[in-house]
Amino acid sequence: MTELAAALRDLDEDKVHELVDAKLDAGVSPIDIIQKCQEGIIAVGELYASGQYYLTELMFSGDIMQSVMAKLDPIIASRAAEGKIIGTVVIGTVRGDIHDIGKNIVVNLLRSNRFKVIDLGVDVHAENFVNMVRKTGAKVLGLSALLNTTYPEMKNVIDALKEAGLRERVKVIIGGAVVSEAVREFTGADAYATDALQGIEFCKKIYRACTAD
Ligand code: B12
């Protein structure tokens, strides 16, 4: 584990920021920094799951991660690619789940890669996803989920798209720490991503295919 990941795991906020600043000064990319932090915060989750950390520590790790993102977001935005908008992506964290740090990273990276993003926030009902896909004509819907109790809810959103007659018009990508090929298959999504960059590549691929049509 890197020093930065370990500092986050140990909830040493000052050290995390010292190391993030040093990395930025050394020209390390915000994406690399996020990946190291993600490694540390996964370790926090494991300590929580094994009873060595409590909810307070879980919350604190989220606060530290958000304070790191407050530093990295403007840098990501300042490096945004210029040019025409590639397409629209609707995104949100599904009903029953309030985790949003990872989703917000995806949103910012999509925006800096010339996507228009409609971010519905957290604890989003299937109906809201369906309505927004219909209204915007977005060709990609991103569902974020960090709790395995939300697998049925992701499937519910996809079933609701089918019922509304929109499933053929939109590709669905699920993302978050708990998704996998098995979850993708269960929910009926088109793709899954456990990191933001895979998600950005998927959106680019879908819109590239549309312009090639
Ligand atoms: C911080 C945290 C919290 C914070 C969240 C703060 C916030 N504003 O988000 C708080 C304290 C609120 C919280 C609450 C809870 N949490 Co919590 N939490 C975490 C923790 C430690 C880190 C999550 C995080 O921010 N990671 C950092 C980001 C950058 O990573 P990420 O979310 O995975 O996102 C990346 C990718 O997954 C991807 N991605 C994410 N979304 C999307 C979407 C799309 C479309 C795409 C393409 C990609 C993508 O891109 C991101 C960047 O690369 C995780 C541990 C873990 N392993 O993730 C537990 C964890 C998710 N929590 C857990 C639990 C159990 C809970 C609670 C139930 C605890 C409780 N008893 O109350 C509640 C649930 C509340 C609810 N109803 O949602 C469990 C879930 C277990 C499970 N498998 O179901 C975990 C895994 C911890 C554990 N190991 O036990 N939590």
Verbal overview:
The chain is an alpha/beta fold and 213 residues long. The protein has 2 domains: 3-78, Methyltransferase, Methionine Synthase (B12-binding Domains), Chain A, domain 1, CATH 1.10.1240; 87-212, Rossmann fold, CATH 3.40.50. Helices cover 58% and strands 12% of the residues. The protein is built from 9 helices and 5 strands; from the N terminus they run ααααβαβαβαβαβα. It has helices at residues 3-9, 13-25, 30-49, 55-78, 101-112, 126-136, 151-163, 181-187, 196-212; strands spanning 87-93, 115-119, 140-144, 171-175, 191-193. Strands 2-1-3-4-5 form a 5-stranded parallel sheet, with helices on both faces. β4 (171-175), α8 (181-187) and β5 form a beta-alpha-beta unit. It is globular and about 50 Å long. It binds cobalamin. Cobalamin is lined by residues 38, 41-42, 44-46, 48-49, 55, 58-59, 61-62, 65, 91, 96-103, 105-106, 142-144, 146-148, 173, 175-178, 193-196, 199.
